[in-house]
Amino acid sequence: MMEYYRKIESCATLDELFSAWKIKNSCQHRIVSRGQTKFLRIDYEKNGFISDGIVNESGWNNGQAPKILFVMKSLSSDIKSVDVDIRSEMRKGTKSRLGITSNGFSYLTIGKWAKGLSLTDKERIEPYYHKFCDVYAWWKSIAVMGLKKENDDETISDPDIIDIYAESDSVEIKKEIEIINPDIIVCCSTYRTLMTYVFGYEPEDGPIYNSDIMKNNWCNMVPVNGKDSLFIDYVEPCWPYLVAYYGLVNIYQQALISNLI
Which helix (H) or strand (E) holds 74? Predict the structure, then answer.
């Protein structure tokens, strides 16, 4: 495995990272939840691998808006048990294979949130727009990431499951975030998992508890790859609710006013 992790560390692009990651040896984890013992086998070669990350390189690097990464528990496709590249589907601006039926309005909502964050500043909040007509355009200037890369039929109903995936792939997840190199990371019900199992900031009763990073402040500056990125602790984008939109952009505006970013 040491050779594998040296290869992961040497990856300079997302495609290089995913090529190595998807052939990682399968592993089995024992989970004890609510008095019951069950086993989780992570097997990318058998169940398929979901590639994600920067949707459009030119849009990401145009310098006209903050670089925003949305981190979710998992991304979904309507086609299971095969390798799927979510970036390719989003570049096409299509809902056909993006799990729009099983994943609700998540991908559409992300487009709305991206627009709001990109156009909000200290003096003005970008108003909520009910229609979805320009969502696809905003997909091209963001990055998306699922902590669970397996493309199987299993849904994450047990909160311990996502922790297992994050801990098992912590080196790869951290490397992916370093390659993406975002300015803003919106953690969609993934903040505690990321901070604990990927970046190593333990909960309050842990030996290396960091009160500034782990306290419930909605947003914190966290060092990633030699620079501080704004992490926003937020909800999953399951529905395009008005209150969820304004909650997110208000948190971001307060971070701007406080000169966090």
Answer: strand 68-74
- DSSP calls for 32-52: EETTEEEEEEE-HHHH-BEE-
- Domain hosting 190: range is 47-257
Q: Which residues, 6 or more positions from 63, have their beta carbon under 8 angstroms from its beta carbon?
A: none
Lowest mean pLDDT among 70-84, 126-140, 212-226, 236-250: 212-226
In a domain, 88, yes or no: yes
Is 173 within the bounds of a domain? Answer: yes
**What is the CATH number for 164?**
3.40.470
Residue 77, CA distances (Å) to 117, 145, 234 in order: 26, 13, 23
Residue 160 included in any domain: yes
Per the domain annotation, does 132 fall within a domain?
yes
CA–CA dist 174, 31 (Å, integer)? 23
Query: Number of structural domains, the chain?
Result: 1
Type of residue numbered 234: Y
Q: Amino acid letter at 124?
A: R
Give the Å distances, CA to CA, from 158 to 35, 38, 101, 108, 164.
13, 11, 21, 25, 11
Average pLDDT of the segment spanning 198-207? 66
Q: How many CA atoms lie within 13 A of 134 on its CB side?
A: 10
The reported pTM is 0.90
